[in-house]
Design goal:
Elements (H helix, E strand, L loop, with lengths): L1 H6 L4 H10 L4 H12 L4 H30 L3 H17 L1 H6 L1 H9 L7 H10 L4 H29 L1
Helix pairs in contact: 2-3, 2-4, 3-4, 3-9, 4-8, 4-9, 7-9, 8-9
């Protein structure tokens, strides 16, 4: 994906923004990538990453319900979705137990498979309202961006 974005004639700001919206990379990758690879201010890199990550979270929250209802009608896809739901419910126990604050923690701690995409799906599965989900995801993104930025800057200074 990075090679694809590199080959497009996009400026660095757009690349960082897009990377922050992708399900695997999110801001856990876009912040270090922007800070270490480009001569863009740290503030711009973090701001673009946070906005892109929150924006995709809002989009996913509003589209996940109708999309899942539609896709579950297809027998072959239903099995795949059921597996994704099962995995997300297992990973999202903290969300189920703590609801709003659990979602903040889930999205905020930058570990594999704990980001905006999975958090939005888990919020849907555990029945959190869209408004509370957006607030929790926004708070989680701010926590995560702070942690990722700190780790990136510390690592860069050590090296």
């Amino acid at each position: 994906m990075i090679e694809f974005l590199e080959n497009l004639i996009l400026n660095e700001n757009i690349k960082i923004f897009i990377l922050s919206m992708l399900p695997i990379t999110e801001l856990r990758f876009s912040i270090p990538y922007g800070i270490l690879m480009y001569d863009i201010s740290i503030t711009n890199t973090v701001l673009l990453s946070v906005i892109g990550n929150i924006l995709i979270g809002i989009i996913v929250i509003y589209l996940i319900g109708p999309l899942m209802n539609f896709l579950r009608k297809v027998q072959y896809i239903r099995k795949i979705i059921d597996n994704i739901f099962k995995r997300t419910k297992n990973k999202g126990k903290i969300i189920n137990n703590m609801k709003f604050f659990g979602l903040i923690i889930f999205v905020g701690i930058p570990l594999p498979l704990t980001g905006v995409w999975t958090g939005s799906l888990a919020a849907y599965l555990f029945g959190l309202s869209k408004e509370k989900s957006i607030l929790a995801i926004t708070a989680g993104v701010l926590v995560s961006s702070t942690i990722v930025t700190f780790i990136t800057l510390t690592g860069r200074n050590i090296l």
